[in-house]
């Protein structure tokens, strides 16, 4: 059974720092699914991940491109598969990204759930107030249980 745990952030900067810790701990072929309503903080969190991966370019929402790739200590593959919903989650060769050298972050991952591997870290962001967010991390598979322990400082 995957055990979830939560982090609370109280500013956009704290969300970026949390993402940065994940980016620093990332290894090749890591996969993170990220969900939360509009304005929850998905883009801020991903900017933090990019900082932790030492990506120098500015990270924006990939909505109009579906997949954006950034160079860093490891590559960051940032996907927003929302626009694939109408086609029933058409396969754009996701596996090559999932198995690639980088960390993949997928927004709206439920649309391509049939194409996801068994193991990944699921992150849900909830908006508690104007400035507070609760992050629920659920690790699936040994690698992500390990990564989660690292992030919790265990
Ligand atoms: P999304 O990509 O999920 O739509 P964004 O990261 O683009 O969300 O936007 C989040 C918005 O919420 C920003 O305007 C940001 O300033 C604000 N915000 C307030 N508190 C927080 C917080 N704790 N973490 C992240 N964003 C926050
Ligand atoms: Mg966004």
TrEMBL record:
Origin superkingdom: Bacteria
Keywords: ATP-binding, Cytoplasm, Magnesium, Metal-binding, Nucleotide-binding, tRNA processing
The keyword Nucleotide-binding is assigned to this record: yes
Protein name (database record): tRNA threonylcarbamoyladenosine biosynthesis protein TsaE
InterPro entries: P-loop_NTPase, T6A_TsaE
Signal sequence, renumbered to the chain: none
Family membership noted in the UniProt record: Belongs to the TsaE family.
Localisation per UniProt entry: Cytoplasm
